[in-house]
Description:
The protein is α+β, with helices and mostly antiparallel strands. It has 3 domains: 249 residues, no CATH class; 291 residues, Zn peptidases (Aminopeptidase, 3-Layer(aba) Sandwich); 117 residues, Immunoglobulin-like. 40% of the residues lie in helices and 21% in strands. The chain is built from 22 helices and 24 strands. The strands form 4 sheets. The chain has a 15-stranded mixed sheet that branches. Helix 3 packs across helix 17 and helix 8 packs across helix 11. The N and C termini lie far apart (70 Å).
Amino acid sequence: MVVRVRQEWAEWGGRGAAEKENYPEREALRLRWALLAAAATALLLAAAAALARRLPDPLSRANGSEHRFIAEIAHEHLVNLTSIGPRVAGSYENEVLAVGVVVAAVKRIAATASPHNRVEFDVHTASGAFPLAFIDGMSHLYRDVQSVVVRVRGAGARPARSALLLNCHYDTVPDSPGASDDAAGCAVVLETLRALAAAPRALRHDVLALLNGAEENVLQASHAFVTRHRWARAARAFVNIEACGSGGREVLFQAGPGEPWLVEVYAAAAPHPFASSLAQELFQSGLIPADTDFRIFRDFGNLSGVDLAWSSNGYVYHTRLDTADRIPAAALQRTGDNVLALAHGLLGGEWLELAAERGASQPVFFDVMGLWVVSARAPAALAAAALTAALVLARLLLSARDAQRELSLDARAWRRAVWRAGAGAAAGAGAGACAAALAAGALHAAGARLAFYARPALLAPLYALPALAAAWGAGAALWARRRGAARLLRGAWAARAAGDALAALQAAALAAGAAAGLRSAFLPLLWALPGAAAALAAGALRAGARARLLAAAAAAALPAAQTGYLALASLDMFVPIMGRAGTSPLPPDVLMALTVAALAMTAFCWVQPLVIAARRPARLIYWMAAVSGATALLVAAGVPGAPYSAERPQRVMVFHTRRTVHARLAPPRHELLYWIPELDANTPRSLAGLVEGAAEARAGSAEECARFPYCGAPYYLPVLSLVARGHWLPAAAPPAPAAGLVAALHTSAHNATVQMLHVNVTGPHHIVMIVAPAAGARLGAPLGGPGGGGAGGAAGGWAGGATPQRGPLWRDAAGALRDTYFFAMHDARKPGPWVLQLPIEHTFTEAPAEWAALSLAGHSLSTRGPALERLLAALPAWTAPTGWSVDLHLYSV
């Protein structure tokens, strides 16, 4: 067996087989052709990166017309909003100053409108409640959230007209000026409104703009508008502008759920397209821990629309670095050009008057390197898939015929050779993924975690090279084990067999994607269709071996460039996200390695047949492995430096917490603590020596996690599945000013199967309540609501009698699994009491020892005491810290 493996290894290196079978070694391709193919693919990636960075020249008042989007005016709106500073929902900055800035801008727009259009606005205040499937799931209760609603309509228009809705939000997370998220979006909406209102003719349809003031409160203001504002009924479609980065190009990453013409109008109108149904499937898969108002308009407004977002430079997202000077005017111009063109396309035609197509499937869509958009509805997409499958089959039959005619190789032997090459490619893909994952795991174990975060260029040698080396090496080694007549295949014929196998695998991937309804299946179609067409054309022309290879290379150019274009855009978004990935089951280094491996092997897949056909391919594999290994050693030794920098910082959250544990037969126990959620793989290790006690920080113990829901930690959002761990530090002083939470709890019998839990809570603007009823019980629809009393209160009570959203299961100290329910209560104005009756529905014959465990936390998002200020100030410049005071109470009733 050892002799056989050595012989096969020698054959893979270019010796042995040629000598044994007396075939001259010159029949193998020179290795330089594989090197040239790899270099050409790298150049295509560089070209795709250059195209992705292109931005239009921004217009100013001096060189722009009143009917065009002018970036200079939009930038002024951006500066006016961000100069206020952070605008947290419920704060004076958000509820008074930001509203004033937006209203003043709207009044200026109204003053410059043409006589054919008029501008109206309304400062909308509303209260409400609704369940939301956001990450782990939550239920909202909100009071008096504000938005500015604008309507532009043609003069003399009839009252009932369909409208296009534009949406953005001006509120921010704590400690961030929120330039990209989402003051820039509001700047684009305002300037788009000005250009539309200045049109020299009356608008055919109305334009609504929702500049909402409570999106970061997890989509509350959009719910208030779409369910309660009188103008909302006219909305027929929407355009939402968001961000998970700063500047760059905005991507259309969600469309639908109906109205497929939305994407078609975008494809025809947008002058700078960037859109992909692959991006939509990635976002909706949950890999990106975020959500947008798209969900609210879809689920509560029964509307279809498009979601646009900036994704470049996500390092500054939700940090103090998200400032106006990081958003170039050219980025505003690009987004504004696209939004204005899309608005004109929708407003100028009959689209908004058509009968609703709510159940229509969304088209497959993608832009070709930012130049134009391909959009195909389901029938056309399926026809393209069927055509591709037919061409691939014809390619396989043609190759079998040529092999029989030119090599006297029967069809069965040729099929075995193609099967061997396909098995090698499949095994190579697995080997490549394993190699990248092992490299990442080794670095993680060595302590070199997130090394790529501040230096994304390291992704290529650390993960892409080992993946390609393993994939090509495994494919070539398996090919060397051919038996029978298939051993006659050398050089161009070996490459042809491997190319056919690759086409068959791509067609199989296309078929599987189409069967699963995945619109991202356009990617294997892009590879298989031109390759099969080129092979058939070369066969029809009776081209020679060299011409066939050139045709295959030409056919691979577009799919390789497009794959690289998508890969670079994906990495641009995912790398910063890995710096706030929380406690995922796999280390973020491994997740990133698997992503890079998949993207690299796809972009360079057409090189593998040349590697298989090359003389001594082991040389290339050895060099790639050597470069990767040397880079990994340097990273493990710390040569590249820390994984963070001032421009690409580590995120640190610190909750200064007074935690009170209420026992039924003992006095309350108070603890003063700092809670630091584990936002990345280096928390809290990277803070050791920088923050007193960080080296000895304790994680939430197993005992605490069994005693209290959410491990007794002051979670502000329902993200237990993303951030499963946090770390406690002792605090010498209480949080100041204290959150001031007061609660009254008691249960009473309602009927034989319902125990009513009465909750009366007062506290700051933001209160989180987590309820875990007894095992086997669940919560029914609450009574009471945002109005604060009775069976409905002043605001009309809970949303339509809906049951609250269930969260993750909690295993208590007895080992029983219990449901959890996460409630977020928000007062935008002066906080008042929250009075709720929560029905605990059960089938118990005997009362349990505990009807419910509760966690109540009052979060004072805009307040920090001196102790917390000193702690955050002590952190180095390569961190992006935030934090606030929390009053946390843990109950058992």
